[in-house]
Amino acid sequence: MARTLAIYPGSFDPPTNGHLDLIQRGSRLFDRLIVAVLVNLEKQPLFSVEDRVEMLRRLTRRMSKVTVDTFQGLLVDYAMKKRATATLRGIRAFSDYEYELQMALTNRRLEPRLETVFLMPAESYTYISSRLVREIFRHGGSVRAFVPRIVEDRLRQKPLQERGVNDAAF
Ligand code: PNS
């Protein structure tokens, strides 16, 4: 019987409750799911790729179908190398759709054998984004409601100058 392997690509800087929700949903749908962190040398990230991989591995360690990896270059090349048949992306609100559609159709043009599967996270996570988490964190606000405990702890370990001024908010 054919086994389905999907790639869930992203920046995951940092991983949020919304990402975790999507990983759980994806792992129920596919036989195997690779969470693939993009190595983007142009961006100035909050967490190094190594830290993001480590957090994601801890978050998924009880999910036997899920592995965590990194990739560079085109997603379609990585997906073909892994023999994946699908790439998984989350759509939170209508505003995500345009960008996601553009990416999905471009990827399809580059590699017609790869399908993009969109899943919606639980309603309670529809407004969470890594960008907002980074912004709240950098201004010293509490991100407890938006990220898993492991991520919150790692943020707390960041040097004071990266954390904003209002440390009491944690
Ligand atoms: O979490 P993000 O930043 O929204 O994820 C974007 C990601 C990593 C899925 C996208 O930027 C990507 O696939 N980059 C790899 C380069 C690539 O294949 N570009 C063409 C896709 S249209």
What is the string of helix and strand elements?
Answer: EHEHEHEHEHH
Shape type? globular
Note the gap between the termini.
49 Å
Largest sheet: 5 strands, parallel
Task: Determine the mean pLDDT.
Answer: 93
Under the CATH scheme, which architecture would be assigned?
Answer: 3-Layer(aba) Sandwich
- pLDDT below 50 for ≥5 consecutive residues: which ranges? none
CATH fold type: Rossmann fold
Report the helical percentage.
25-40%
| Overall CATH class | Alpha Beta
Number of helices: 6
Strand order, sheet with most strands: 3-2-1-4-5
Cofactors, ions and other ligands in the entry: 4'-phosphopantetheine
Domains (count)? 1
Written overview of the protein:
Helix content is 38%, strand content 17%. By secondary structure, it is of the alpha/beta class. It has a single domain (5-127), classed as Rossmann fold (3-Layer(aba) Sandwich), CATH 3.40.50.620. Strand 4 (86-90), helix 4 (94-110) and strand 5 form a beta-alpha-beta unit. The longest helix is centred in the middle third of the chain and has 17 residues, at 94-110. The termini are far apart. Residues 9-11, 38, 74-75, 103, 106-107 line the site of 4'-phosphopantetheine. 4'-phosphopantetheine is lined by residues 9-11, 38, 74-75, 103, 106-107.
Topology:
Elements: E1 5-10, H1 17-29, E2 32-38, H2 49-59, E3 66-71, H3 75-81, E4 86-90, H4 94-110, E5 115-119, H5 130-138, H6 149-156
Parallel strand pairs: 1-2, 1-4, 2-3, 4-5
The structure holds 4'-phosphopantetheine.
4'-phosphopantetheine is lined by residues 9-11, 38, 74-75, 103, 106-107.
